[in-house]
Every structure is written in C-alpha cells, then in structure tokens.
Design goal:
Low-confidence stretches: 279-291
Strand order of the largest sheet: 3-2-1-4-5-6
Strand content: 5-15%
Helix content: 55-70%
Shape: elongated
Number of strands: 6
Structural class: alpha/beta
Number of domains: 3
Order of helices and strands: HHHHHHHHHHHEHHEHEHEHEEH
Mean pLDDT: 90
Bound molecules: NADP nicotinamide-adenine-dinucleotide phosphate
Number of helices: 17
Radius of gyration: 26 Å
C-alpha cells in the first residue's frame, strides 16, 4: 500500500467526520464535540493533501499560507464579540469564495499554458467555481462592510437598478458561453486571458450589485445565502481538481447554507425574494422615539429595579425572554445570577428562545451557554408558548420584534405572520430596554402599551444588576 492510495482513505474519513460534525452541531449539548470532530477531520484532510503529488514544490508556500491564515483566524475568533459574529462569518465566508475563485483562475492558467483550448467539462465546472466564488467574495465583503459600519448599512437603491444588475449578470453569462463554445469547438477566437479577466471582474461587480440594495439588518440572511454560494463554488472547484473531499465538503456547506437561509426567512415569515429585493430591512427607524402613548389613550408604565424585584420575588413561574439587546449589553452573566437568586427562592425560571432572537441563528443559545445557563432551561418557541399564560412574570430583556403581538393581530404590520413568543399572555410583563425606540424591524410594539406591562428602562446589564441588588437586599 502506497501513500497515494491512503490519501482517498484519509479523505473519506475526513468526509465522514464532517457529516458527524454537522450532526453534532444540531444540538447545544453535542455542538462543541461536533465542532472538534469536524476540525479533526479537516486536520486529517490537510495533512493528507501534503502527500498529494499535486502539491509538488508548493509546500513552503502552502505552509506559510496556513500559518498566516490560521493565526489571523485564531486571533479573530478569540477576540470577536458575540454581536460581531455575523461580520466574522461574512469574512470567513468571503475568504472561502475568494479561494474557490483563485483555484479556478489558476486552473484556467494551467490549461491555457498547454496551448490547447480548455477541456469542456473542466471549463464548465471551473467557470462556475470562478463566477460563484467571485460573487460570494465581493458580496461577503460588502456584507462585512455594512455590518461593521464601514459602508452605510442602508439599502443602496437607484432608478433602473434591477436592469443594471440584470445586465451585469447577462454579460457574465454571454462571456462564459463564449468560453464554453471555445472548449466545444476547439478554437479560440477571443483572447482567453481577456475573457477570463472580464468574467472575473463582472462576477465581482455582480456580487457588489447584489448585496448593496439590501439593508444592513437583513445581512445575516444574505450571509447565510452567500455561505451556500461559497459551498457550491468549493464543490465546483472540487470537480475541477478531481478532489472528492472538496466536492463533499462544498456540497455540505451549500446544502446547510441553503437550509439555514430557508429557516431564517421562514422564522421572519418572509420569502427569500422579499429579503433580497424587499424593503423590510432597508430602513430601520433608528432614532425614532416611538410612542409614549397609544391612540386609544393607553400609556406606558415605567417601574424601577425595586418594584421589578418585588414583582419577581412574588412569582412562582418566571419566563426570561432574551433578545438582541441582551447580547449588546453582554448581560448574560447578570441574567444567570438573577435566575440563580430566584431559583434559590423556589421560583421556576425558564428561558424562551425565539429562532431569530438576536442577529444570528442560535445567538441566544450561545450567549446563555456562555453564562452556563443549563440547556434544559432553554425552550424553543413552540415548547414555551403554551406556558406563558401560566407565567406570573415574563421578563423581556432587550427583545422587541420577537414579542410584538402585531405579528399575530395586525395584518397591516410588516411583521404580520412572523411567529412570535406569546409574552402578552403572561400575567405580568417586565420589559428591560433603554428607550421606546423600535428594534430591527423599525416598528412600534403594542406590548409596551399593555396594562400588564411595566417598562424598566436602562441598559440590560445595568438594569438586571440593579434588580439583583434589590433581591439581595430583600433576602
Ligand atoms: P430587536 O427587535 O432588534 O430588539 C432589540 C431591542 O433591544 C431594541 O428594541 C433595543 O431597544 C434593545 N436594546 C439594544 N441595546 C440594548 C441594551 N444595551 N440594553 C437593553 N436593551 C437594548 O431584537 P429581537 O427581539 O431579538 O429580534 C430580533 C430581530 O432581528 C427580529 O426582527 C429578527 O427577524 C431579526 N433578525 C434575526 C436574525 C437571526 O438569525 N437571529 C437574522 C436576521 C434578522 P432600545 O434601543 O430602546 O434599548
């Protein structure tokens, strides 16, 4: 048995670990282990590749690349804040798409160096890797810029935009067909280097044109979609290089990215087309003061930490509803402390997790896990919704849209039909947020005008900390 025959075996083992890893990631209890299994598989794959003949004399460059990329990735992942995770994913994703595009360009260069027109099969898959990879690279770069505030997160729109974007896509397809025709006929009439350069530039511009009109708030869904594109590009690069592992890994990424994109759109009750071409995330009304009173004369009721502590300490069942504001404030540890205190008084505490609470799927689960909140206290929307009517207090911390009853009752609301947590059914509701400003969807929340609702204004970490102090004082 030679080393060369062992490489496919190593790739097969790696492919199996990727599938097991994904399976592990489907539950919080097995997620860390799943991640480790997949990482170990990746290590096996990388080591096996070193023994491949294709590597030739390129080992020093590859090692240098791994060192620089690995160090940057390790450092970035260590220091990134949970709220900045979407842009981190955008960066990693863009790097994957860019790598697939570079592989495609190098493969074209290798083919062209032979002096013969490119082979048809190779041309098609290489072209797809180039185009999809380049779109994913530039699209992810724009998504990163919007989320990081480097470019305006607002939707960038102009008259005739769809025509221009469509024109860029059409030009890319036409030039690609010219290249494919050359591969079929065996004759090249246009300089192939120019052709490939033009296709690359057009695909890069298309990625920018695709993401610029989408509002910053919708970026997580876009990133998930681009992630699926990257998977596809990598799978295509796998076909070009005749590397089965790349095909498997790319397909897994493509499929999981597509499923995630669907789940996110579904949880927001919006079609993907609406996310890509609609206006929901386009203009969040940042800065709007929101109503202090409803049209029907209802007004908001504000309480202090002391009253909140009293309300909580008389409760039997408390449901904590975490949202984006909890993540921004990094209030997870204070929340855990509050729950511990309540539980020490014999009060039942559960957490209600909406599928799109926060800005990333699983955002709340990861945050609460970081503060060692036991997994069995976290409940999905469908599990917890029937329990709200039995809850003495629903404690909403930095969550807004995912609690908005308008999603159930107001057909005119932009979020009508979005599944929500039935917080309004609880006996009492305490909402912790800093102001009456709206959340992600930029709309007012009727829950705040509910006579059962008391607003505790303040930064989530600060406000929860003060309630904890009050509870300790009373103990
Ligand atoms: P949200 O509707 O955006 O509301 C968050 C609230 O937190 C805001 O109203 C804000 O009010 C408050 N807040 C911000 N900073 C705070 C702080 N330091 N302390 C206390 N409160 C603070 O968030 P959500 O209820 O979690 O809903 C998530 C939204 O994101 C949904 O509309 C969902 O569709 C969307 N989304 C989610 C995902 C995902 O995968 N999770 C992806 C894309 C979009 P103040 O400014 O008054 O404090």
């Amino acid at each position: 048995m030679t080393v060369a025959t062992l490489i496919p075996v190593a790739y097969l083992i790696a492919a199996i670990t990727f599938i097991l890893g994904l399976k592990g990631l489907s539950s919080p209890t097995t997620a860390v282990q799943g991640n480790r299994i997949a990482a170990a598989g990746m290590l096996i794959a990388v080591i096996a590749t070193f023994f491949s003949q294709d590597v030739n004399g390129g080992l020093p460059v590859i090692l240098a690349g791994i060192l620089v990329g690995g160090a940057a990735g390790f450092y970035g992942a260590r220091v990134v804040k949970m709220t900045a995770m979407p842009q981190m994913v955008a960066l990693f994703n863009g790097a994957g798409g860019g790598a697939a595009a570079l592989v495609a360009i190098l493969e074209f260069a290798r083919e062209l160096a032979t002096g013969r027109p490119p082979d048809l099969g190779v041309s098609v898959t290489t072209l797809l890797a180039l185009i999809i990879g380049a779109v994913s690279f530039s699209g992810s770069a724009v998504a990163f810029g919007k989320l990081q505030g480097l470019i305006t997160p607002k939707a960038f729109r102009y008259a005739g935009q769809q025509l221009v974007t469509g024109g860029i896509a059409a030009a890319t397809v036409v030039l690609s067909l010219v290249l494919v025709a050359a591969a079929i006929t065996g004759t090249i009439t246009v300089d192939p280097i120019l052709l490939i350069a033009a296709i690359t530039i057009l695909a890069l511009v298309f990625g920018v044109a695709l993401v610029m009109p989408i509002g910053g708030a919708d970026m997580p869904v876009v990133i998930s979609l681009l992630n699926a594109y990257t998977g596809l590009a990598v799978a295509m690069a796998g076909f070009t290089l005749a590397n089965q592992l790349l095909v498997v890994a790319g397909t897994l990424v493509g499929a999981s990215g597509t499923i995630l994109t669907r789940l996110m759109s579904k949880a927001m009750n919006r079609s993907l087309a609406n996310v890509l071409f609609g206006a929901f995330g386009a203009a969040t009304a940042a800065g709007a003061a929101g109503p202090a009173a409803g049209d029907d004369g209802r007004s908001i009721r504000s309480i202090g930490p002391e009253d909140a502590a009293i309300l909580l300490s008389y409760a039997q069942n408390v449901i904590v509803v975490p949202g984006y504001g909890l993540a921004v404030a990094q209030a997870q540890h204070s929340v855990r402390e509050l729950a511990d205190l309540l539980e020490s008084k014999g009060i039942n505490v559960k957490y209600a997790i909406h599928p799109v609470a926060g800005r990333m799927p699983g955002h709340m689960n990861v945050l609460l896990a970081e503060a060692n909140v036991p997994y069995d206290k976290l409940f999905d929307m469908d599990q917890i919704n029937p329990e709200f009517q039995r809850a003495d207090v629903a404690l909403v911390i930095g969550a807004n849209d995912v609690t908005n009853p308008a999603a159930r009752s107001n057909p005119g609301s932009p979020i009508y039909g979005m599944p929500i947590l039935d917080v309004d059914k609880a006996q009492n509701i305490i909402v912790i947020k800093r102001s009456m400003k709206p959340g992600f969807a930029g709309i007012d929340n009727d829950l705040y005008l509910d006579p059962k609702t008391a607003m505790l204004f303040g930064d989530a970490k600060d406000a929860v900390g003060k309630v904890v102090q009050e509870l300790k004082k009373a103990a």
